[in-house]
Each structure stands twice: as C-alpha cells, then as structure tokens.
Amino acid sequence: NIVPINPIEALSKGNMLQIIFFALLFGFGLSVIGDKGKQVLHFFDGAADVMIKVTGFVMLYAPIGVFGLMAYTVSMHGLSVLLPLIKLVLVMYLACILQILIVYLPCVKITGLTPSRFLKGLASPMMIAFTTCSSAAALSTTLLSVQKLGASRSVSSFSIPLGNTINMDGAAIYMGIAAIFAAEVYGIPMPLDRQLTVILLAVLASIGSMGVPGAALIMITMVFTQVGIPLEAIALVAGVDRIMDMARTTINVLGDATGALFVSKLESDFDPERGERLAAAE
Length: 282
Fold this sequence. Notes:
15 helices
C-alpha cells in the first residue's frame, strides 16, 4: 500500500507512507529536469519555510496541551504510569550512546580523527542542539565546525543542510523506542513483522521530519496509526518529550557532522591541516 494510486487522495487522507513515496519520486524527477524545475523547487522551498514557521507557532502552545494530556493520563492511571517514563528516557539515552559508539566513531576513525578531537570540535553545535532542541538552530555552527575539523567546504555545504532535513538519526531512534513503549503500555502485541514495520516507518518519518523542537512528536502519530497504537499514547510520551528531544537533536547534529567528514574522506578532500588553518584564522 506504499505506492499511491491517487497522490491527492493520499494527501487528503493523511496516508504518510504514500505521501513520502510520491514526494521522493517527485523530488527525483525535479532533480533530473534541472533548470526547468527551479521555479517549482523555489515554491516547495518557500512552502517548507512556511510550514516550519507554522509548526513553531503550534509548538508555542504545546506545553498547555502536554499539561492537559498528562493531567488526564495520571488521573486515569495513577502515578504508577510515570515510572515507566523514567525507563523510557534511560533507554533513549542508552540508544543514542550506542549510536555514537557503534556507528559514528568507527566512521570518524576512518577519517583519521580521534574520538576526543571529533567530540571536542563539535562541542559548540552539540551544546546548541542540546539546549535548543533544534538542529536548524545549530546548522551554521555545525557547518563551520566540520570545516575546522578538515571537511571540505563543497562537501560540507551540501551535506550539512541536506542532512539537517533528511538525516534525522535521533528522530528515527526515538520513534522506534516510543512505539514499542506505547505498545507495551497498551498491551498491543508487536511480532517481528510489526517491529520491522516500525523500523521502516521510523526511518521514512524521520526523513520528513523538520529541524524544529518537537517535530518528531508530530511525526510519531504516523507510526502509531500505521501499527494500530491508540493516539492517546502520545499523552504518555509527550510528558518527557523535551528531555528526549535534547538527546535526539544532539544525535541528529552528530550524524550530519559524521556524514560530512566521512564523505570528504571518500572524496579525498579531507584535510585536517586546512581545518586548523581555518580555526587559526578566526
């Protein structure tokens, strides 16, 4: 059911899998035609900026909604419902640490950088991401930091903004963990096929997620709907979403930086000395 018969119908019904599939296909077509599609590209670029701003307006009222949702949930289920939330946060942070150790650091090692230099060089964008929960806010700092570490300007100026839009590793991890957590709370069985569906949906939804605070909480409705989890479960997750948003945004930024460094190395355009000269010039 991933291929839409009618893309407009998919939009009207909110069938996110079909929407994402058509959007990817349309984007590839737009890329192939080159200059002829610039006007269309500018339209979607502007539309994306508008939607980010609108989402920002909505998120201003999110604390009030979270208060209402949590008050209702605790009154119905008691304080015992909060204990699993602590475990949820711990699992999220553990998963993020494993992502760094198993995925990012081996890729960084190939470039020749030490883990300490990598993390120290990205301390500033990580701090911005952790405190603002917005990878978009850390974009310019990330771009400059990876160039100081040795990534080429051409690669980093392409991969960092692109990764800021579609490389949401932390959001994908968060959606998977939250879906399994909600399924356990509501006693919904999650056999292997459903778990694989959750993985696929989390990856696709993270590609369509925006680099603004709380965006993943909006996208998770798609995952819940597709695997039969009640949307009321969002009330549980929303209560600790800000704490988990700090971790997932930091992972998003680290993933973008790792990609820029790794691709620069593959393109034989990685030069730590150039980065040191750039840092010294500032």
